[in-house]
Amino acid sequence: MATMLAAVLVAHGGPEALEVRHALPVPRPAAGQVRVEVAAAGVNNTDLWTREGAYGTADDPGAVVGWQGVPITFPRVQGGDAVGRVVELGEGAPEELLGRRVLVDPITYGQGDDPDQPPIEGVLGSEEDGAFAEYLCVPADRVHDVTDSPLSDEQLACLPIAYGTATGMLERAHLGTGERVLVTGASGGVGIALVQLAAARGAQVVAVTNRRNAAAVRRAGACKVLVRDVDPLDAELAAAGPFAVIADVVGGPSFSALLAVLGTGGRLVTAAPSPGRSSRSTCACCTCSDER
Predict the structure, then answer these.
(1) Contact at 8 Å (CB) between 195 and 220?
(2) To 5 degrees, how large is the angle CA 138–CA 163–CA 197?
(3) pTM for this entry
(4) What is the rounded distance in angstroms from the CA atom of residue 84 to the CA atom of residue 68?
(5) Residues spanned by CATH 3.90.180.10 within the chain?
(6) What is the SS3 assignment for the chain?
(7) For domain 164-291, which CATH number applies: 2.140.10.10, 3.30.450.40, 3.40.50.720, 2.40.50.840?
(8) For residue 75, is the peptide bond before it cis, meaning its omega torsion is within 30 degrees of 0?
(9) Does 143 have pLDDT greater than 50?
(10) In this structure, are strands 262-270 and 243-248 parallel, antiparallel, or unpaired?
(11) Which terminus of the chain has a lower count of CB atoms within 10 Å, N or C?
(12) 285 pLDDT exceeds 50?
């Protein structure tokens, strides 16, 4: 097959900036890469904000740029979340990957001083072509064999961006067993991932969500749920605190209330909207950190 179907971003803007192309050249893997036949692709806010160019920069929050704070090269195949099957190997790629079902790590990492927190250089679907296509090529060390996973392709495709962000937040916060952690926006993609992953680490999770999703958040692992559309949230937060860790994905007017319930020596990590941006914008680093 020489060509493929793909959804291509041709400019920053609304849905009209995406074009469905039926004859895009099929990518060929370079040395060390694999070609993945995409079985399922997730859609999340990263894709929407990339399309809109809504990430901004530290100096200009209104700048129209991609995830990394630099202009995107168009046309760009979007899609940060992908699962599929390895159908071709580039030179030097491990032969055992051929034919395997794999989950794709959407992040390109650089070299830094801390091997546990390498700098992020790009994201699939923003700085490089992504999953809204029949095929994509990525370095072999960014695919993970999930052939034996009981999850469906669609379920697996929901994981990389949301759960990767949540994992980065909890690792940056150094969340420990038995610590009390507050998770805001707990019913969203990153929020529910934070609840599940924090509970799996043995933390005591207090989650903020709405009434409609409260039961689902409890099932995900929260030991206490604060219902923001029923309870007076500031008073509920004050009664529930203090917290060793706060993992925030909301920001906005409630941010000062969060600082008030952060315990001495506590850690706060956020993937919330930046000041001065709309609610559909987000902090470019995903795991900013402040300590009180």
Answers:
(1) yes
(2) 140
(3) 0.84
(4) 26
(5) 3-158
(6) CCEEEEEEECCCCCHHHEEEEEEEECCCCCCCEEEEEEEEEECCHHHHHHHHCECCCCCCCCCCECCCCCCCCCCEECCCEEEEEEEEECCCCCHHHCCCEEEECCEEECCCCCCCCCCEEEEECCCECCCCECEEEEEHHHEEECCCCCCCHHHHCCCHHHHHHHHHHHHHHCCCCCCEEEECCCCCHHHHHHHHHHHHCCCEEEEEECHHHHHHHHHHCCCEEEECCCCCHHHHHHHHCCEEEEEECCCHHHHHHHHHCEEEEEEEEECCCCCCCCCCCCCCCCCEEEEC
(7) 3.40.50.720
(8) yes
(9) yes
(10) parallel
(11) N
(12) no
Residues 6+ apart with CB under 8 A from 234: 254, 257
Report whether pLDDT(87) > 80. yes
Amino acid at 164: G
Place of tokens 């995830």: 67
What angle (nearest 5°) sits at the alpha carbon of residue 183, between those of residues 180 and 187? 140
pLDDT confidence of residue 251: 80
| Token digits of residue 67 | 């995830």
Mean pLDDT for all residues in the chain: 88
- Choosing among 3.20.20.450, 3.40.50.2300, 3.90.180.10, 3.40.50.300, the CATH entry for 3-158 is 3.90.180.10
* 26 and 43 Cβ atoms separated by less than 8 Å: no
Q: 66 with 32: CB under 8 angstroms?
A: no
Both structure tokens of 38: 């995409």
Reading the block at residue 90, the tokens are 């580039």
CA pair distance 131, 82, nearest whole angstrom: 6
Q: What is the pLDDT of residue 230?
A: 66
